[in-house]
Backbone:
DNA sequence: AGAATGATCCTCT
DNA sequence: GAGGATCATTCTC
């Protein structure tokens, strides 16, 4: 079942949490790829300095101001496409960045896309490595700027509820930003091997989850 | 363990 | 013309 527009027309943090366990699907001439969302981040409004809407409306961030349930895709660092799902009502700029997936369909195609242009062989990729990180998952799924503003409720790029058993979720600070770091708006399944490894801030908690190999 | 680096290009001032 | 919601690898301490 494809997620409805109403699903996205809610507070962004609710949508972020509820997207964990849903399935991102992309159909292309090369075939279908899909994966279970296990990590996502919320970017909320012009008052969130890390949100692309922070400077006010521009040509690039226009989709954020549009209706919910639409894809916002943009190029980051000159080489990575990042995909977001626009949330909340039209005129209220907010979105959820999809950060990691567990591959479901089209894993061989994902391997080929990830290996393309590199020295690595397609077979050398670990399954959980294919869609770990927002730039990696768009590469594996063949998502480019061309998909910007696509309707996630009807198009070849969509998010479905496939009744995957509920995932455990935890919240943390967002990754890869220097402003708005105080918000714990990153939501992920701590037991998924596809989740981005936590670099950056040292852990000050007594929760010594320092992993050894 | 943490910092630096390079690939690479669209968007806004 | 500067600066990114990155990633993997290579450095330095």
Residues:
């Amino acid at each position: 079942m494809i997620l409805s527009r109403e699903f996205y027309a809610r507070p962004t943090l609710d949508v972020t949490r509820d997207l964990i366990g849903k399935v991102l699907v992309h159909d292309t001439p090369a075939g279908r790829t899909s994966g279970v969302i296990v990590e996502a981040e919320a970017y909320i409004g012009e008052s969130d300095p890390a949100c692309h809407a922070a400077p006010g409306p521009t040509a690039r961030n226009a989709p954020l101001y549009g209706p919910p349930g639409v894809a916002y895709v943009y190029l980051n660092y000159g080489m990575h496409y990042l995909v977001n799902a626009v949330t909340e009502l039209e005129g209220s700029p907010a979105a959820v960045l999809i950060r990691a997936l567990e591959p479901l369909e089209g894993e061989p195609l994902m391997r080929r896309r990830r290996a393309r242009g590199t020295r690595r062989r397609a077979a050398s990729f670990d399954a959980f490595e294919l869609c770990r990180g927002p730039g990696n998952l768009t590469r594996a799924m063949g998502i480019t700027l061309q998909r910007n503003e696509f309707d996630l409720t009807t198009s070849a790029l969509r998010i479905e509820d496939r009744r995957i058993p509920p995932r455990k979720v935890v919240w943390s600070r967002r990754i890869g930003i220097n402003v708005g770091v105080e918000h714990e708006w990153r939501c992920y399944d701590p037991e998924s091997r596809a989740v981005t490894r936590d670099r950056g801030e040292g852990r000050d908690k007594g929760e010594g989850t320092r992993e050894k190999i």
